[in-house]
Amino acid sequence: MIAQLNKHYPRISLFKTYQRLVAYFLFEGRPLTTKGQWFNTFVKAWLKFVISISKPELKHPPVFIIGTGRSGTTLLGMLLSMHKNIAFLNEPKIIWHTANNMDDVIGSYNKSGGSFLLNENDATQSVISKMQKIYNLFLKITGSKIVLDKYPEMIFRVDYTEKIFSGCRFLFITRNFYDTVFSNQLWNNSNSLINKNIKEDWWGLNNKKWKLICEELLSNSELLQGYTEQIKKFDDDILKSAVEWIVTMEQGLNVLKSHKNILHVKYENIIEETEPTLNKILNFLNLNADNKINIYAKAILKKKTSKPIELVLPDFLINAASVVSTQLNYKFIK
């Protein structure tokens, strides 16, 4: 679907549909595994033009949806995008790469380099100015007040992001271990591409993202750092997805302990307790209720019955997933 638009979205708000199309065509870029990657040349040129004419003036700090993919990040972004004060950017990694070429861990815009672990020192004045200029013009074009940026990997760059956008807030969304892992596998089965020995999939350009996970994130994992050499040999999507979920959730728990400007949101609560959960999020963001969000939620959300899933995993992964699940208040059945 173009700009994640379905039949319900324009019926509820044509203006919000306009905002999503602006975001999609001018600011989000086309990542790996998607069609139309040739269009990135024009998006990059446009962003450089934006930087040359815009001013780094943001009246309201942005909000970031962080966590791990296949956890409802897009769903949450689209729901909140219905709010009258919000304009949604769905993984605008081309913007972040334009500001800092070390940003891209997937390989969509930079085949080499990249790092998950950007920190305050990486948020140079040049990066700050570029990001604020782009966001400022995006808000002006969309006639909105607040940028909502869905970028899951920013869970590893909270201090970096805060340095760029003082006062920003984070929504850390989680989904239970089993459903996330299997959703990753299903996504990869449907979207991975191999062309002339070049592989594009969930794990990046020729495994770029997976290599960075092994090189950078395992050493920071209290639960997995002792199994680095074994994990590096993983080639199965289920095993790799299990590792990604564990290290990302560990990071999320650490951020929740050390930062006050972050709210933990469960995907399951969005589905099962929709209105109270959305109200809690809006209160956290100091935003008034907007009925369009509830109308859209009722149109698209359906309760699902989870089926028991059997996974064949090494004991150390099962144990690590169990520990993290408990800390996130998920029931975990070994």
Description:
This protein is of the alpha/beta class. It has a single domain (2-307), classed as 3-Layer(aba) Sandwich (Rossmann fold), CATH 3.40.50. The chain has 15 helices and eight strands. The strands form two sheets. A five-stranded parallel sheet has the order 2-3-1-4-8. A three-stranded antiparallel sheet has the order 5-6-7. Helix 11 (237-258) runs parallel beside helix 15 (315-327). It is globular and about 55 Å long. The relative contact order is 0.14.
Strand neighbour order, sheet with most strands = 2-3-1-4-8
- Which consecutive residue ranges, at least 5 long each, have pLDDT under 50? none
Outline type: globular
CATH architecture label: 3-Layer(aba) Sandwich
CATH class annotation: Alpha Beta
Number of domains: 1
End-to-end CA span = 37 Å
Radius of gyration: 19 Å
Which descriptors would you attach to this protein?
alpha/beta, Rossmann fold, 5-stranded parallel β-sheet, 3-stranded antiparallel β-sheet, 15 helices, globular
